[in-house]
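User: Here's a structure from my thesis project, written as structure tokens. My advisor, Dr. K., wants to see whether a designed sequence matches the one we expressed. Can you design one independently, without my sequence as a hint?
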């Protein structure tokens, strides 16, 4: 959110913070202010602080209003509308924990900002998972970005680069792409189960 709007891809830590152009500017400003306070405390009071930026972390389950809306549509066998190519870098809780451990053992990480992620997935891929998990007869309708009239969140590309974290911390995601997709599928299944339970 602190990047505001992705102007180059992939998104690195040097990307400008275009908070006024964020989908939720006040929300982005809150996050950016928290980051700046951490930097001030590190600089002025020597409180060690390292900042992680990530798009969407998940563990045994995953949630979010737009994701749940897609699940509800699939359960009703309605079409799932997606913007071609839109998506983001998902982060497993295992990888987030690994990044934290690395920061605690490396020198020179205080005051630094690191993107972290596990794998990039498009909404089309997520929609396919949801359809399989719900046994839906839904279709995936791909819409060009410039014609999209749905939630702005589903029309963004957040392909965060974690090259800096790999270079300076030795960070790499745990597992193969297919293993991480499987973890996300399990988390989505828990989300589907919860949506069904709440609908009864």
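Assistant: Designed independently from the structure alone:
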């Amino acid at each position: 959110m602190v990047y505001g709007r992705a102007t180059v891809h992939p998104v690195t830590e040097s990307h400008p913070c275009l908070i006024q152009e964020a989908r939720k500017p006040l929300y982005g400003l809150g996050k950016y202010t928290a980051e700046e306070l951490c930097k001030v405390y590190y600089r002025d009071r020597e409180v060690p602080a390292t900042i992680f930026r990530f798009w969407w972390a998940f563990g045994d389950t995953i949630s979010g209003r737009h994701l749940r809306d897609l699940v509800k549509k699939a359960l009703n066998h309605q079409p799932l509308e997606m913007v071609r190519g839109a998506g983001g870098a998902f982060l497993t809780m295992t990888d987030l924990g690994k990044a934290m451990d690395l920061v605690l053992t490396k020198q020179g990480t205080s005051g630094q900002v690191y993107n972290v992620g596990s794998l990039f997935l498009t909404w089309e891929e997520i929609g396919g998972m949801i359809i399989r998990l719900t046994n839906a007869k839904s279709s995936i309708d791909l819409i060009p970005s410039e014609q999209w009239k749905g939630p702005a969140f589903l029309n963004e590309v957040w392909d965060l680069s974690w090259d800096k974290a790999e270079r300076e911390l030795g960070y790499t995601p745990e597992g193969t792409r297919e293993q991480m997709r499987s973890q996300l599928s399990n988390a989505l299944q828990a989300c589907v189960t919860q949506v069904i339970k709440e609908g009864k």
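When you compare it with your expressed construct, this may help: The chain has one domain: 50-199.
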